[in-house]
Amino acid sequence: MFRILEGRLTIWRLTDNGPEEIEAGAGDIVTIAPFMVHGYANRGSVPVVFSAVVDRDMAEFIEAEGASEPPQTSPSAETIARMTAAANAYGITILAA
């Protein structure tokens, strides 16, 4: 579940009816079913603030691998490989965008 506090967030999810794209703004709540393929991005120039309710594996992955500040550049191939391997260790599958 994503709760948007400030800004706008684009959320994608793959439903039984096909792909769905949601433009969520402050005050919106978007739910994601367990094991549903999904992703999100801030397409704007203004920061977005949101809270998310996640399961234990995801929370532990974020705690272990996350950063408190956003990266200043796109991730390198090595960083993507490291994060993908780390996610797999927590039972999380990262799909290519």
Low confidence ranges: none
Radius of gyration: 14 Å
Number of strands: 6
**SS-based class:** alpha+beta
Beta-strand residue fraction: 25-35%
| Mean pLDDT level | 92
Oligomer: single chain
SSE run:
EEEEEEHH
- Work out the helicity level: 10-25%
The number of domains is: 2
In DSSP terms (H or I, runs of 4 or more residues), the helix count works out at: 2
What does this structure look like?
This protein has 97 residues and is α+β, with helices and mostly antiparallel strands. The protein folds into two domains: 1-53; 55-97, no CATH class. The protein has helices at residues 56-65, 77-89, and strands at residues 2-6, 8-15, 18-25, 29-30, 38-41, 49-52. The strands form two sheets. The chain has a three-stranded antiparallel beta sheet with strand order 4-1-6, with no helix packed on it. A hairpin with a 2-residue loop joins strand 2 and strand 3 (18-25). The longest helix has 13 residues, at 77-89. The relative contact order is 0.19. Keywords: Isomerase.
Compact summary:
This protein has 97 residues and is of the alpha+beta class.
